[in-house]
Amino acid sequence: MSFLLAVFVLSITIVKQHVFASSETFLKDGVDGGDLYKMVAEMAMKIRLLEKSVGQVEELEQKVAEQGRIIEQLRDQVTKCELTSCRKVESDADIIRKNITAPHFGKTIMQPKSGFNRGRETRAGEVPEHVAFTAYLDHPLTGLMNGVVIIIPSVLLNEGAAYNVHTGIFTVPVDGTYLFTFSIVHFRPNQILAKLVVDNVGMVDAVADADGREHQSSNTAILRLHQGQNVWLKAADVEDGTLYSLAHERYCTFSGVLLYT
């Protein structure tokens, strides 16, 4: 753009010089003054057009420079968002790995700093008065493999904020007797087994064997648990399994409630 601007400026200079030279020539040759006036007027018009073009070029250069600054700002924002997302995914993945390999009861995990909860949240160290949650799967969950945590990401209720929507894990906030129930729907021509586990130890199972059609299965357990234990759903005896559920057809669910302490 700067090169083009220089060309325009040079053109204006040349035209002006040409007008001046032509005027002297016509005066020497005795050319009619009317013709000279007409020529000067035409040249003046060309000069104005060139000057206008130069102004437009300068305006375009300013716009291009401003757009360049905006693009750089957007790139910086995208980079920051990507770094933040990567750190969050790595943190949640590390939490899930630790729970999958937990060999015994009573092993605790850290909850991610961020999370989505509906219900009254508790302060650090505070014993919640009520503990209850219901989560549902709002999209088909594909690629399930043996031992993978079945993460149910959307909640209808999460009183006590003990269920983590990012990891799919419920962390027991207080000693007591809890009721858990879950359901799954499978539609591929093979079976999928879901296990309710406490610190990676199986409690109850549900199997969905679609055989070409949708098949739903569920199970319920009442368990005496201690603060810090972790409860989740785990896929078993499956390779490349799929659970079917939608935001408006909530077939796959996971619920828990504190009955008494």
From TrEMBL:
<feature type="signal peptide">
    <location>
        <begin position="1"/>
        <end position="21"/>
    </location>
</feature>
<dbReference type="Pfam" id="PF00386">
    <property type="entry name" value="C1q"/>
</dbReference>
<dbReference type="GO" id="GO:0005576">
    <property type="term" value="C:extracellular region"/>
</dbReference>
<keyword id="KW-0732">Signal</keyword>
<keyword id="KW-0964">Secreted</keyword>
<protein>
    <recommendedName>
        <fullName>C1q domain-containing protein</fullName>
    </recommendedName>
</protein>
<feature type="domain" description="C1q">
    <location>
        <begin position="126"/>
        <end position="261"/>
    </location>
</feature>
<dbReference type="InterPro" id="IPR050392">
    <property type="entry name" value="Collagen/C1q_domain"/>
</dbReference>
<dbReference type="InterPro" id="IPR001073">
    <property type="entry name" value="C1q_dom"/>
</dbReference>
<dbReference type="InterPro" id="IPR008983">
    <property type="entry name" value="Tumour_necrosis_fac-like_dom"/>
</dbReference>
